From TrEMBL:
<dbReference type="InterPro" id="IPR007210">
    <property type="entry name" value="ABC_Gly_betaine_transp_sub-bd"/>
</dbReference>
<protein>
    <submittedName>
        <fullName>Substrate-binding region of ABC-type glycine betaine transport system</fullName>
    </submittedName>
</protein>
<feature type="domain" description="ABC-type glycine betaine transport system substrate-binding">
    <location>
        <begin position="26"/>
        <end position="309"/>
    </location>
</feature>
<feature type="signal peptide">
    <location>
        <begin position="1"/>
        <end position="23"/>
    </location>
</feature>
<keyword id="KW-0732">Signal</keyword>
<dbReference type="GO" id="GO:0022857">
    <property type="term" value="F:transmembrane transporter activity"/>
</dbReference>
<dbReference type="Pfam" id="PF04069">
    <property type="entry name" value="OpuAC"/>
</dbReference>
<dbReference type="GO" id="GO:0043190">
    <property type="term" value="C:ATP-binding cassette (ABC) transporter complex"/>
</dbReference>
Length: 333
């Protein structure tokens, strides 16, 4: 009889879990290929699964293909970290209330982008904090394959920032100064090039963004173009593929949002409400990314670390019922 009761209780629990997942349904989350977005995607999956009973799964993602798919097909359901400077069209569509909704700010402080050099270089030669100084000293930034060229490390192919950094490379006439645009191949390749330079205090010049563990670990100085910020031109031309006459502008501060499919928001109001509240400060994200890097943890392990150790943060994002479920799940990690 006892075995039958235990079996019945297990069946009821299984049915309850199944019904909860069915109520929320399947949710696809873009697992974008840079560290902060990877962490957010895994945190979101854990919270949706364990707090809201969703059948949540990660799907490969990147700025341009994910944004295009969401506009054209309304999928995946969630893009955890979309930078406005990188893909303005997705925000135009969301603002017009078509297939998308802007849920909330992924990064409450916004994102920071620019061209950077190591701080130790600027201490040795202060003019390297300016684009004029960089161009006069192009030969010191040795190209990894051609010693006669200077290396500018840009964004990996497929990233939205590849468009803007490419246009700025052109508008600044860096090729005329002796630079070649180097595609690092991946986010890891780009960060690895900075780490390698720092190991021997070698020259490095390229694009990067914050918040990141890299800029927290390695002191870098943003290069001043001497142009100020032309936000209108940046949005209308520098961030667009067909920008025929790019003009120089510093990167405007970039609001960073979580974007969801409208259908997901309508069908799952409680889960959508979570995304309207889920937001990290740059200090919080830098701390988490530094831990992730030091521990060589993947996104899943980093998400578990966050759930176990940062209840004071995530408990403010979720309903009371979801918080109770997540605490139980955290205790089982």
């Amino acid at each position: 009889m006892k075995k039958m009761m235990i079996g019945a209780m297990s069946l009821v629990a299984a049915l309850a879990t199944s019904q909860a997942a069915e109520a929320c349904g399947k949710v696809t989350i873009a697992d974008m290929n840079w560290s902060s977005a990877e962490l957010m995607a895994n945190v979101d999956m854990f919270i949706l699964k364990n707090g809201y009973g969703c059948d949540a799964e990660l799907v490969p993602g990147d700025t341009m293909p994910t944004g295009t798919s969401m506009i054209e097909k309304g999928e995946p359901d969630v893009a955890p970290e979309m930078w406005t400077n990188s893909f303005p069209q997705i925000f135009k569509d969301a603002g017009e209330g078509k297939k998308l909704r802007i849920a909330g700010k992924s990064l409450s402080d916004g994102g920071e982008e620019g061209f950077w050099v190591p701080e130790y270089l600027v201490k040795q030669n202060p003019e390297l904090a300016t684009i004029e100084g960089i161009m006069k000293n192009a030969k010191m930034f040795k190209h990894p394959e051609d010693p006669d060229l200077g290396a500018f490390y840009g964004c990996p192919a497929g990233w939205g920032c590849q468009i803007s950094s490419g246009h700025l490379f052109k508008s600044l006439k860096l090729a005329d100064a002796g630079f070649d645009y180097v595609d690092p191949g991946s986010g890891a390749g780009l960060s690895g090039s900075i780490a390698k330079a720092y190991t021997g205090e070698k020259p490095w010049f390229g694009y990067y963004w914050a918040p990141t563990a890299v800029l927290g670990k390695y002191k870098m100085v943003m290069v001043d173009f001497g142009s100020g910020v032309d936000a209108e031109h940046f949005k209308g031309c520098l961030s667009q593929k067909d920008c025929e006459e790019p003009k120089t502008s510093m990167y405007p501060p970039s609001p960073v949002y979580t974007v969801t499919a409208s259908d997901f928001a309508s069908k799952n109001p409680q889960a959508y409400d979570y995304f309207t509240k889920r937001s990290f400060t740059n200090a919080q994200m830098n701390e988490l990314l530094a831990w992730k890097e030091e521990e060589q943890a993947d996104g899943g392990i980093a998400a578990e670390h966050f759930i176990k150790n940062y209840e004071a943060i995530w408990s403010k994002w979720v309903s009371g019922d979801a918080a109770a479920k997540l605490k139980k799940a955290a205790n089982n990690l």
